Structures are given as C-alpha cells and as structure tokens.
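pinning this so it doesn't scroll away 📌
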Amino acid sequence: MSSTVSTPGQIRHSGHPDVPEIDLAVDLGRLRLPNPVMVASGTFGYGKEMAGFVPVERIGGVVPKTITPLPRKGNRPWRTVETSAGLLNSIGLDNDGVEAFVEKQLPWLAACGAPVVVSIAGANQDEFIALASRLDGVPGIAALELNISCPNVSHGVDFGTDPEACRSVVAGVRNATSLPILAKLTPNVTDIVSVARGAADGGADGVTLVNTCLGIVVDWRRRRPLLGNGLGGLSGPAIKPIALRCVHQVRQKLDIPIVGVGGIMTIDDIMEFLVTGASAVQIGTANFADPTAAARLLDALPVAVAEAGAASVRDVVGTLRLDGPQATCGEENKRGDETP
C-alpha cells in the first residue's frame, strides 16, 4: 500500500463577483484533504445517517464514530445532557466492533466521495495495534484517528495524559500500518505540548486538538448527577477558548499539522482556528443543532479566506500576530484594523 494518501485538490469560487477562486486543499502530513472542513467522530454517525441533510461528498473528511475491537454497549443512561453553552455526553464508545464496521459501514463510507478517517480506541496498546493492523490495506480508508482521549470510559485518557504513553501507543500503531495517523488529544492535562510532542515523536502525521473537557451536571433536588456515568465530556461553544489555547500552544512549540475541534459553530470560529494554527477543523456538536452545518460553513469559507487577503487556506494557517498593538473592541476590530 502506498505510504502517501491524497485526494484531489479543491478550488472553489465563492459565488461573490469580487472574490477570486480559492484553493481549499490542505495537507495533514501525508494526508491531503480537498478542504479543511471535517466532521468529528461521534457527531456524524457512520455518515449515511446524515446523507439526507448534507452532501457528504463535499466534506473535507468524515470521521465516523469510534470503533473498538469488540462490540460495546456503552454507558447507562442518561448519556447526554444539554448545558447552557454546550453538551455533556457520556456515550461510552457504544459501537458494534471492528468486524461489523468493516462489513456493514465501510462499504458505504468508501463510496461516499469524502476522505474517511477511521477513529479507533483500545483498552490497551495491543488493542490499538491490532485495530490498526486489521484496517491496514482495507480499501476506502484515508487515515486513522487514535482516540486516546475519551473521558467516558475507564481507560479513556490513559494514553492521552502521559507523553511517553502517547508516544508508545502512536509508535506501535505506526509500525502496524502505512496509513496516516492523527492522535486525538485531551485538554484535561497540565501540559498539552508535551503530550503532542509524544505523538509527534511516535510518528503521528498530525494531532487533533481537542477532545471534550471533563465535567458534571447535577440535579440538586435529588442530590444526584444527571449522567448515568456521573462524569462526562463537555463539548460545544463553552470549550472553544480552551481548544484554541491548545492549538496555539502546540503551534508555537511543534512543527506538526493540527486539526482544531471544539465549539465551532460559525465561519468566524473556523477562521479563528486556522489563523491560530490549525490546518483543518472538525465540526462536532454543531451537527446536532444543525445537520447542514458542515456544508453551510464550507460555502462561507472562500469568502472568509479572500477577506483575509489569501488565495488559499494554507496561506491563512498560523498567521496569528502576537506582537504590536492589540485590537480594540470597537468597530475597527471587526474590520481587522489595528488601534493607532
């Protein structure tokens, strides 16, 4: 199997008469995506559930729900609770296992027209390696995303909180597959850079920043947590500043492609992640509120990139300015002007 996976570049006109054609293609190490707008694991089903709402073939990359070696029933209900600025979930990696995925889900995904990045999770390093080996060479898979950061299972964050454990599991998977690898990391650490460095040292093609933030919602009248598992993962707009901080810190210290995820709802959110240092983004919780979110945001992207004075998405990535006068809160800030 070739060590380089690519999909055709995508140049799209914004539809605005004053905006030139924009090159939307991005690279995540050896993985080339037609555009940077992906959908996050656990928020898009296996893809075909959403096909009636969004043209899946236009999406930059589809990440189906995480699969494990054997079927999992997941956690007891409640599994999701809305919060004031997001969603708390404790699904527990409910899935039918890798063999059912390959037999029943992958054929549709392979034909959907979008790059497929398969999310995998194991209870230990050997299970991650076994999954990667099983999927290596299987047609229709563009890359693997290692879910080493799920807060909703007992072993979920073990590999994502320790740099050496992260390096080791990524290296084991790297030796088991020729597919590009993304390591999805948790924000529930004191030093995200050291864990990302472990992923890079292990051979990851990129890192996905970030998974959900650990949280709890309680019913004070019953003196009980609302989620059946007690704790859960917080996603949605509430965690966007945390996700941006993680992207910024890793971008400043490491030369590794980043996929930004966490609270993306608008085109401004996408542009914030891009200029901060993410080469691509994943739409997550927004899919629940608006199943058309990925396509809607992709339509808005060329105009935003042109407004940034760039001819391609790649020209925008990592252009955050850290010196000079800070922007004010006035109307001039909306135009991108600096305070005199």
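📌 and the second one:
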Amino acid sequence: MPSDVLLAHSFFMKNDPKQSSKVRPYPPLGTLYAASYLRDLGYSVRLFDAMLADSPEDFQTVLDDAEPRIVVIYEDQFNFLNKMCLKHSRDAACQMAMTARSRHCSVIAAGSDVSDHPEIYFQHGVQFAIFGEAEHALGELLQIITGRSTASPELIGGVALPKTGFPKGVRRNKPRTPERHPDVFPFPAWDLIDAERYRSAWTAAHGYFSLNMVSTRGCPFHCNWCAKPIWGQRYAMRSPANVAEEMARIKRLLKPDHIWFADDIFGLQPKWVVEFADEVRARSASVPFTIQSRADLMTENAVAALAEAGCMEVWLGAESGSQKILDAMDKGISIAQIAEARTRLQSAGIRACYFIQFGYPGEEFEDILSTVRLIRDTLPDDIGISVSNPLPGTKFHEMVKAELGEKDHWDDSNDLAMMFQGTYQTAFYRKLHELLHRGLELWRRSDAEGQLLSQELDKEWSELAAREASCRSTSPTSVRKTYVSVQAPDLTQRWN
C-alpha cells in the first residue's frame, strides 16, 4: 500500500572512510522520533535508513516501493556527524531530493545543514525547509500539504521557503521555540529499522551490539565553537522515569549490550542523575552505557549515581591542556577539573575519555605540549582528536569568517582540514593526530616493549618540534572577541 510519508536521511556510512573503518553505525534517532510523532498524527510512515545502505540508488528502490505523497529528508539531530555538515551527506541529500521530485513527491528537508543553508537544498528540488527543532513544524506543514488545514506555510514557525526578493532567495518564517517538555514526544519508532542488520555489523566488528538514546535536547553552555542550529542555547530534560522506561523497553525488545546516550550534555544536574539511577533500578532496566558530559559536572554524587545506573564510559569535552586556550574558547572549565573528573571516574570504575581539539586561534606549540602533558599525566582511557572547525552560527565562525576560503565544510569526518589560517597548516595537525593517538596507546602500557616504543615515539615528537616553525601558516588568525563573555548557566534552575 502507498504510504503518506517516506522519511529518509542521507548519512551513508560507506561514504565516510573514518566511520566505515570504525564500524559503529547508529540508527537515525532523530528520524525515528519524527516517524513516531507523525504516526501519532495519523500518517502512515515508511523509512529509508541510509546508514547501512550502499548508495542513494537504494533510496530510489524504497521510494518506488513506498509510493509516498511526501518525502522528508530528516537528518538525525542527535548525531554529531550531522552537525558537522559533511559534503558527502549534503550531496546525497540533494540527489535524493531530486529523485523524489522526479516522482512528483512533495519534498521537505530538516537538519543542521538545512537550517544553515536552505538555499542549497532549494536548488535541488526541496520545497520546504525546517530550521531548528522540527517535529511540531513538520506536523503543521503536513497538515497543509495533505489538505487537512487551509493555513499558509508562511505562517508556520521554523519553516523556510524559496521566494524571490529575500536574501539568497529564502523566506524564513519566525523561529520556533523548542519544546520545553520532551516527554510529550513518543518513543522512537524502533520497529522501522532493521535491528538485526545493525546487530550483525556491531557484533562482527566489536563483539557486542550498541544502540542510541537521548535524555535531553540542547546544551546551555557557551563554548564559542559549538554549533547549535537546532536548539540554540536552550536545554530541555526528559524526566528520569521517562528515560528509564524507554531504556527498559529497548532492553526487553531489542536486547542491546550497550547504549550510547547521544546527548550533548547528559545529566546537567546531579539530582537528576540520582533520580535516573533510582528509576533504572526500579525497572531492572540497566544496560551498560556511555555518555558525553563536562568535567565540572562530574561531582561525587553524579559519578556515584552514574555507576549505579550502569554507566561504563564518559566522554569529557577536555579540548585542551592549556588554560589559555580553554578560556579563549569560553569553555568554562579548568585543567584541574579535568584531572579531578578523570580520577573520580576511574575510582568509580568508569572509563574516562577526552575530546581534544587542536588548531584554535592563538594556540602555540607550548599550548600543544600542555595538551600532550595533560594526556600523558592523566592517561584517559581513550581520546578523540579534531581540529577547530568554524561552523556557521557560532561566535568562533564570526571570528574567522574573513579567513575562510572556498572550502567551508569537511568532505568526511576524518578530513581534519584547517579552513582558516591556524597557527599551523593542515598536515601538521594530521601528524599531531597520529602521534597523540599512538602516544596514548604506548603510555598506557607498562611492559618493556611499550616503554621502548614510547622512547622511539619521543624521537618523533622531537622531530616535530624541530620542524614546527616550518609548518606555520604565513598569517595565522588571532582571537578577536567582539562580544562580552556570557556567564556560566545557573545549574540550579529548572530546565523545562
């Protein structure tokens, strides 16, 4: 039977070399939320899940089978890979939109890149773009397209339309306030994914099966490089009971071995984490899980509750071992807090991992060495390394936009290209990426071979130091703050 709506996303793991090698595919959680929301409104929904598909040609097969009236290219709002606005994902989305239009479907697009650059998608067949949190706007828009409502699309908050006479040919309606009570959204439509295909991919590569969840939407902190095209500065928390109930359902129906909470910031308040642990225990819902958080949120109460709930790993936004760079980023944490969080998590039996960022304006070699020392001294269980990426809408982007060239986004998640004049050139940062990953692996070893290899690696660090001057950019960008730094959010207030 024909479907009312075909929901799709365009992140093909096969198009991203780094993700293909890691083999850690996650279902498109934001798209699954949209599917369950539309079902509650009475629409019949099909899904095209690009994650494990071969190419956009696979989309054509599903499109022909579903015969939808409406196609919604709905990028996963909870996966950092979509926030990065990668070229291969954008290209695939545009190809899919044109294919849908050739079948006379109405085409809607939503997501981070769509929020920033709707004009690109309008040039490739998209008729309506949704910027910001999309569920409510999508529901209202479908009511109009299907004739259930006679309202005008120009009156729907959070919707953009192609229209001459407006900047870049885009009419943006007024922004929409994100939902303050995310418990109103039904659980994701897990039945639409091929769970066994995900399970096979994970178990073949890693020996266990991981799925994704979120407990919150947004982030209230002010790191000036962090893009927030969906929720802005807003932050909304699901109730601990609601999250624990979904966790129990996933455990019962899909039987994962591990859960990744994809929240930008999990557990803003220790009391929420304590209540969550209680709700998980009451439902016997515990599954080993990983979260993303901040060093200053790893209080004694929070860490104890995380351990009780089943947390096995925390990824901390450490970013740098230089306080100067952390302050320039408006990160709002100290080096001492990073080390303290690592120790506290280790004592609780929880793996502590760092996100590290090189290339921020003003970072000198001594700042890089401070980061190396932080990692060598505290020995995190893992690290993820990137370079500063000026994403649209950020204060950081405003600082460096005059230095940007034709390349304004990465081709894939392993690109690591400098898109402005950093202190050093791209090849230098790629070498740093290699040495630091290798270094952590060796520094964590206590055997004789590890010590010998570590000494050999030290020689490579010395060689890099000897030639760092020759790797410098001709006119490195300096930090130019034209704004007053915002105070840290009041974590005692209600966030719903």
